[in-house]
Write a structure and sequence with these properties.
Order of helices and strands: HHEEEEEHHEHEEHHHEHE
Number of strands: 10
Strand content: 15-25%
């Protein structure tokens, strides 16, 4: 009788062990199939690559296609290249990784730069300030004649993209990029929302219907492609779906960033009645 009980217990343990091994194998197979899915890679590019850029006005983030992609049964990761905006010419890489279930693993922020502290003072859309404008004029006049600073331009009132282009026009030439700020400071990130069309203007391919003529339109399209299940990952970047959707619905510009600008160009923008003030970004890392 005792030997029969032992035999049954031994058989039960073998069955349990076999089930565990089979389940583990199934999970590994499922994990690998998810990680090798082209849809998963493209979704990461769309959601995470753009979220990183929207919360990183200090950088030019390459949103793909990525050549350094690592796949394991427990993670899928992309090495995302970024370069500091302005005259630093410094490159920084960040690896964004997801679990098989689509949850972001680890860091989701690029290192702080001198611009980070300036962005924390952003007051675009809050009305006119004679004192701020006078202070900016003094700072610009004191610049060396050969300086090419990076600067954050605040608007007196937020403007539609059409009014912004008509009354301010941030492009100093037809080929210049636009670096636009699309909201007041966000409590979750400490910065305004930001959009830049990317290298080669829509060339990264994350937006299927990318409108080369409208930076605001590109931002709105990106937000329209986000879903409720993206919320946990967005929060790791300091974003919320509600704030993004509000900015997309409003579709207004609160300010913009100038890179490699001259004293004359800065004074040109400062003299515009739609401009509240200009904040210079200090040199250095």
């Amino acid at each position: 009788m005792i030997s029969e009980v032992r035999r049954r217990n031994k058989l039960r343990r073998r069955l349990v062990l076999g089930s565990v091994i089979a389940l583990t194998g199934l999970m590994v197979t499922l994990g690998l199939s998810l990680q090798y899915s082209e849809y998963r890679t493209e979704r990461m590019r769309l959601v995470l690559g753009n979220a990183l850029q929207v919360t990183s006005p200090e950088y030019l983030v390459r949103r793909g296609p990525y050549t350094d992609v690592e796949r394991t049964p427990i993670s899928l990761s992309l090495l995302v290249p970024a370069r500091a905006l302005g005259n630093e010419l410094e490159s920084t890489n960040i690896r964004l990784a997801q679990s098989p279930w689509g949850r972001l693993i680890g860091a989701a922020q690029l290192p702080a730069k001198p611009m980070t502290a300036v962005l924390a003072k952003f007051r675009g859309g809050t009305g006119e300030s004679v004192a701020e404008k006078s202070k900016a004029k003094t700072a610009i006049i004191e610049l060396a004649d050969n300086s090419r600073p990076t600067a954050i331009v605040e608007l007196v009132n937020s403007l539609s993209e059409a009014d912004f282009r008509r009354s301010v026009n941030p492009k100093l030439s037809r080929d210049d990029d636009e670096f636009i700020l699309l909201s007041p400071i966000q409590e979750t990130s400490g910065k305004p929302l930001y959009w830049w069309s990317g290298f080669d203007n829509c060339g990264d391919g994350t937006l299927r219907n990318c409108d080369k003529a409208s930076s605001v339109g590109q931002f709105r399209e990106w937000v329209s492609l986000l879903r409720g299940y993206d919320e946990p990952n967005l929060r790791k970047f300091g974003l919320t779906l509600s704030a993004l959707r509000h900015a997309a619905e409003e579709a207004n510009v609160y300010g913009f960033i100038l890179s490699w600008s001259t004293k004359g160009q800065l004074l040109h923008f400062l003299n515009n009645p739609e401009v509240r003030t200009i904040r210079l970004v200090p040199d250095g890392k």
